[in-house]
Amino acid sequence: MADKEPVTELDARFSSDKATPTSWREARGILEAAEIYWLTTIRRDGSPHVTPLIGIWQDGALHFCTGPTEQKARNLEADARCVLTTGANSLTTGVDVVVEGTAVLVEDEARLGRLAEAYEAKYGHDWHFDVEDGAFTHEAGRALVFGVAPERGFGFAREGEYGQTRWRF
Questions:
Q1: What's the average model confidence in pLDDT over 109-136?
Q2: Which Gene3D superfamilies does the UniProt record give (predicted)?
């Protein structure tokens, strides 16, 4: 997956008069640097499921892993649509970023190897993964890896001016 440059628009309905849109470059930097993301998936009964997790921005997508029997994996098996969110958790500073997309199972072992290296570089040796049979492996077992390329995104800036940006890919 390559990084796509989206159409960027400021939504004046939810922005201060002097607000400017947040660039996708800035938003992508926030996605790359974040340590925690919130994943929202859809349960089989249609209700939402939200959980925090760690992840890696690489090749135009946000990647995360999960055990095959965990709720998020079961949800994605039935409906791959999801939302990933990260941000500042402050009312007056920072930018929150929301990415909507479709989770795609990553099974290519070369790509998984690059992602495993990126996890360890970002989060340290406790997050070392080996690659085997199209998945991550570690002492806790097997972990499926998913990539979510943005289909639509939103940025909520609070640096002096409140601004809501929309990115369409």
A1: 98
A2: Electron Transport, Fmn-binding Protein, Chain A (2.30.110.10)
